[in-house]
Amino acid sequence: MKPTLLVLAAGMGSRYGGLKQMDGLGPSGETIIDYSIYDAVQAGFGKVVYIVREYFLDVFKETVEKKYGHVKCLDGSPLEFCFVTQELDKIPAGFTLNPEREKPWGTAHAVLMAKDVIHEPFAVINGDDFYGKESFKILGDWLRAHENTSGEFCLVGFALENTLSESGSVSRGICHYDEKGRLTSVVEHLNIAAVAGGAVEGDNSVSGAHVELDGKALCSMNMWGFTPDYFEKSEKIFKGFLEKNIGELKKEFYIPFAIDVMIKENSAVTSVLATPSRWFGVTYKEDRPGVVAKFAELAAKGVYPTPLYE
Q1: What CATH number is given to the structural domain containing 148?
Q2: pTM higher than 0.90 for the full model?
Q3: Which domain holds residue 281?
Q4: Strand locations in 135-283, DSSP E?
Q5: Is 106 part of a structural domain of the chain?
Q6: For the chain, what is the radius of gyration of the CA atoms?
Q7: How many domains are there within the chain?
Q8: Within the chain, where are the H helices?
Q9: Residue 52 domain-assigned (yes or no)
Q10: Comparison of pLDDT for 284 and 214, the residue scoring more
Q11: 15-19, 64-68, 95-99: least confident range
Q12: Which pLDDT band, with edges at 50, 70 and 90, does 22 fall under?
């Protein structure tokens, strides 16, 4: 069984000021998605599904065909690709969209857009985050081991200190889990940054308190592993969400929200898998030079070929 990689690439990244997913950052103009695809193939994935917006679907398709048309899986078969779009009006029957709403419905809604094209265990990642080889290996192994299970999902957790930006504060969901490593909650913290002396501090979004955080604490960077029954469970929760929020202009249906409902309903368990990888990405425009330098360093060390795709 070859798991599928679902790439969330519909966002525009307002703080960064452009379409991050198409920005060439590697030594030969590679995008962050290029590296994720490369790492996923090396970890045994066999298909890539992109969630995009309709207005740049054609650009994505053209780019993908040009870059990856010849890429082979580990078993020598062609790497498969599929494209689905996330739009505001793609909601269950019986609900009427507020005509004034412009904001997308969120990450969990985006994942639901792929329910008709994914029938095997799959990973979910952001298109503008670099997760590292180890993370994809950990996730791929877990997905293959859960081919015939249901109600068991996973989250790849990164050490908080490995996810900070040098250009400004960040928001992170800190993972809480039981003695079996099963997720009990994800608590969002805002304005997280390293301070003098090497400590990490941030604002607890629940209590509002400014607190010191454990740099080794595992946090979510939106790297998930699901079996196909996730779609049915999530869609049911989305309908409940819409019953309360269909008239709202900004409320979004996020993956952690859906997972939290499943935890409370005892309809699924989510294992937290620790990765040693260091995350990086382009949260701010000022992050770009540092990311370019990191990819150059990885290429110089031979971690990645350059160009990634001939």
Answers
A1: 3.90.550.10
A2: yes
A3: 4-300
A4: 152-159, 170-177, 183-194, 200-204, 210-213, 218-226, 269-275, 280-281
A5: yes
A6: 19
A7: 1
A8: 32-42, 57-68, 107-112, 133-145, 229-245, 255-265, 288-300
A9: yes
A10: 214
A11: 15-19
A12: low
